[in-house]
Amino acid sequence: GVSAQRIQDGSYRTIGYIESNGTIKDGSYRVVGHIESNGTVKDGSYHVVGHIESNGTVKDGSYRVIGHIESNGTINIKDGSYRVIGHIESNGTVKDESYRPIGHYSNVPKEWVAWFFFFQ
């Protein structure tokens, strides 16, 4: 299978990894979570902590809306009240609400990147 893809902070330091099967690891390769193909997000102990729905709605483990992932070229990340909290660009840059770079990714679904940076 495909090896884990590196997730980096704004200074290109490795802060985690996401494997092609949805396993999330911290910078020391410890498993901290899982994103399943149906959008269910689990912590390292496999307890459900959230859901990423196909329409971009992000919910916590109790199905309360905590955010939104909206695509219009750039991916806009919004909190539960629709306030912009970040952006994910197709060039692999993750930015905060003021467009300052806070991270970098490659070859990982943008929804997974959104969870990693803004909802976990």
In short:
The protein is built from one helix and twelve strands. By secondary structure, the protein is mainly beta. The model has no long low-confidence stretch (mean pLDDT 94).
Main sheet attributes: strand count, strand direction, barrel closure: 12 strands, antiparallel, barrel
What Rg, in angstroms, do the CA atoms define?
13 Å
- Give the strand line-up of the largest sheet: 1-2-3-4-5-6-7-8-9-10-11-12
**SS summary, helix count:** 1
- The global form is globular
Coarse structural class: mainly beta
Catalogue the unreliable spans: none
Order of helices and strands: EEEEEEEEEEEEH
What's the overall average pLDDT, rounded? Answer: 94
Question: Can you tell me about this structure?
Answer:
This protein has one helix and twelve strands, in the order E-E-E-E-E-E-E-E-E-E-E-E-H. By secondary structure, the protein is mainly beta. A twelve-stranded antiparallel barrel has the order 1-2-3-4-5-6-7-8-9-10-11-12. Strand 4 (31-35) and strand 5 form a beta hairpin. The radius of gyration is 13 Å and the shape is globular.
What's the helix and strand layout?
Elements: E1 5-9, E2 14-18, E3 23-26, E4 31-35, E5 40-43, E6 48-52, E7 57-60, E8 65-72, E9 74-79, E10 84-88, E11 93-96, E12 101-104, H1 110-119
What keyword list fits this structure?
single chain, mainly beta, twelve-stranded antiparallel barrel, 1 helix, globular
